[in-house]
Amino acid sequence: MACNAPLGGYQEKVLARITIFGLGYVGLVTGTCFAELGNDVIGFDTDRDRVAMLQGGGVPIYEPGLAEMIERNVRAKRLEFSADVAVAVRSSDLVFIAVGTPQGNDGHADLTYVRQAAIDIARNLNGPKIVVNKSTVPVETGNLVRTLIREYAEAEHDVRVISNPSSCAKGPRSRTS
Fold first, then answer.
1. In sequence order, which ranges of the chain are alpha helices (DSSP H)?
2. What is the mean pLDDT of the chain?
3. What residues contact 46, with CB distance under 8 A and at least 6 apart?
4. Other C-beta atoms within 10 Å of 87: how many?
5. Which of 39, 45, 136 is nearest to 92 (CA)?
6. CA atoms of 93 and 128, how far apart (whole Å)
7. Which residue, 15, 68, 6, 70, is CA-closest to 40?
8. Which of 46, 40, 39, 74 is CA-nearest to residue 59?
9. How many other C-beta atoms are found inside a 10 Å radius of the C-beta of residue 80?
10. What residues contact 24, with CB distance under 8 A and at least 6 apart?
11. CB-CB contact of 92 with 31 (8 Å)
């Protein structure tokens, strides 16, 4: 697993403090690649068993080279895992929402987890943030996330919401070539 990272994860200066909401395939691979590039990353999930597995050195999914990359970045203190939403949100400048969006009975994406992530972020804001929709979501979901953050935030903070959809193509996500 290379992430095509010219820095190889060995940069001494932290580039950004990032939280990834959701430690499924997209979130875990994305967060690990960000750590490999020299960022400090907290992987957050509400599934405490998944978090405990990752904290103990286990990896719940298979991606070539992922386990080694996780181990290297945990050891370098660029990657950690938490089920504490307050710590995850308050420790970061960028928060990626990479939660599941299963197909609902009506055939549309079920945004339950995206909505909950936006509310959790709002309730734990402590300053300006960039919130990135990484989950596979319908057009205009950024507006929904922005509205929920404004509605549930306890204080006014500068929050920007952008979209960076995950690829739907099959095959390893750790390589871009």
1. 25-36, 48-55, 66-75, 85-90, 112-123, 141-152
2. 89
3. 83, 85
4. 15
5. 39
6. 7
7. 15
8. 74
9. 20
10. 61, 98, 99, 100
11. no
Mean pLDDT value across residues 139-155? 94
Q: How many CA atoms lie within 13 A of 83 on its CB side?
A: 10
Beta carbons of 103 and 136 less than 8 angstroms apart: no
pLDDT in tens, 33-62: 999 999 999 999 999 999 999 999 999 999
First to last CA, the chain: 12
Token pair, residue 138, equals 């319908």
What token pair was written down for 103?
């197909």
Higher pLDDT, 6 or 50: 50
Are residues 73 and 38 in contact, defined by beta-carbon separation less than 8 angstroms?
no
Residues paired with residue 56 on neighbouring β-strands, in sequence order? none
- Rounded Cα distance, 32 and 172, in Å: 14
Residue with tokens 């979501």: 137
Q: Quote the tokens at residue 123.
A: 């309730």
